[in-house]
Amino acid sequence: MTGLKILITSFMCATHTGLEVYVRDLALELQKRGHVPIIYSPILGELAQKLRLKTIPVVDDLNAIGTFPDLIHGHHHMETMTALLHFPGVPAIYFCHNAFSRLDSPPPSPRLLRYVAVDQPCYEKLVFEHAVPVERARLLLNFVDGSRFKPRTPLPARPSRALIYGNYARDDANLAAVREACLRAGLQLDVVGLGMGRPLTEPEKLLGQYDIVFAKARAAAEALTVGTAVVVYCMRSVGPMVTVSELDRLLPLNFGIRAMTAHSSPESLTAAVSREIARYDPQDATEVSSRVRKCLQSDRAIDEILSLYGEVIMEHGNAGTTDALAEGRATAAYIRWLSARVGQHLDVVIDSPVVRPNAPPESYPVVIRPKRLWERVSTSSTVVRLKLPLAKVPFVGKLAQSVGRRLAGSSR
Question: Which of 44, 79, 203, 347 has the fewest CB atoms in 10 Å of its CB?
Fold first, then answer.
């Protein structure tokens, strides 16, 4: 197949998080194969501009697309559903990248004909939580462009430089615990990622300068492809050093959360990281890198994705016209799903047990509280503030005033 118009959806196309980088690499690979990728995301930024420089169309409004795509490659349920409703009759495939996030829950639609998970936990989410038939579910691991992430020079017998590579790293007690472990091992530690204000847009130029990299998921795969020793790590959770003996187990887990153990104290985290640093073996790490480069090569993954595209397009074509009744009921089920979650998990309330009755509504501090934490939050000051100017949300002031009066009345 050549010349397919593929609409790729994503919640964001702005920074360099794992999913955004996946979308970027997918679009570039499809373009190399002679296809036309179009990216739809409601939140655009620097990454979108870079893709446009590569002549890949990126839009935040589907009305900007003047023709129907041949297929929708969906990520994130709301963006996928938006595309399905905007382009009736177009078949779709859904990719799940996160086993926990509701953003990655597949929407209901009779035109979603295949579901792909990038690791085993995501596969189980699709099949056991969202009733995806096993014959329509696939496990397709992340891929890494080996032409970009070239092998580094041979690792030294003794490591001297380490890197935490991940957007979740923060300058906190967890980071201090890892620093302590590295200090004891004589390692210089650097940290990159969005959480540290140091986003890494070209990791292929940096990773090869380090002997040990602490990372998870796609970041870990990139470091392994380059040839560094990798310890599976994220915040207060640490997994094993990726060795030949562990690789077959860790690959289908995408070097993710199921491969790690959370630690309740900095001392415990330091001890765990120290144990994994002690397992450093340059020869083993080199063999791991060689196997990862074969398993996660981009050409093989794109071949499989294009094969799935072909299956979906053929199956949809053989089915004939779209069932309007099934479409309508799927949309209704989605709205019900969305409504239930909005109602269950968000309450706009006043950040005070006693509201000042005479204060203007615009001055009320508005917060959002998850309902599942209601009992705990209602007796404490723990809140998540809504960073949104009240002047731009006219109804919030009136709602806050109404709720405030009720709370003030009940507190007297």
Answer: 347
**Is-contact 140 117, C-beta < 8 A?**
yes
For the stretch 27-55, pLDDT in tens is 999 999 999 999 999 999 999 999 999 99
Residue 276's closest CA among 214, 244, 231, 220? 231
CA dist 394 and 390 (Å) reads 7
Residue 41's Cβ-side half-sphere holds a number of Cα atoms within 13 Å equal to 24
List, in order of start, the domains of the chain with CATH numbers.
5-140+298-340 (3.40.50.2000), 161-295 (3.40.50.2000), 346-411 (no CATH)
Instruction: Tell me the pTM.
Output: 0.81
CA–CA separation, 71 vs 5, rounded Å? 7
Of residues 49, 51, 78, the one with CA closest to residue 62: 78
Residues 6+ apart with CB under 8 A from 177: 236, 263, 266, 267, 269, 270, 273
| Amino acid letter, 334 | Y
Count other Cβ atoms within 10 Å, centred on residue 122.
Answer: 23
Contacts of 395 (CB under 8 A, 6+ apart): none
Cα distance between residue 199 and residue 291, in whole Å: 28
Q: With CA atoms as reference, report the closest residue to 124 among 235, 246, 258, 13.
A: 258
CA distance 71 to 74: 9
Q: How far apart are CA 81 and CA 333, in angstroms?
A: 12
* Confidence tier at 303 by pLDDT (50, 70, 90): very high
Count CB neighbours of 229 within 10 A: 27
Question: In angstroms, rounded to a whole number, what is the distance separating the alpha carbons of residues 8 and 14?
Answer: 15
Bridge partners (DSSP) of residue 6 are: 37, 71
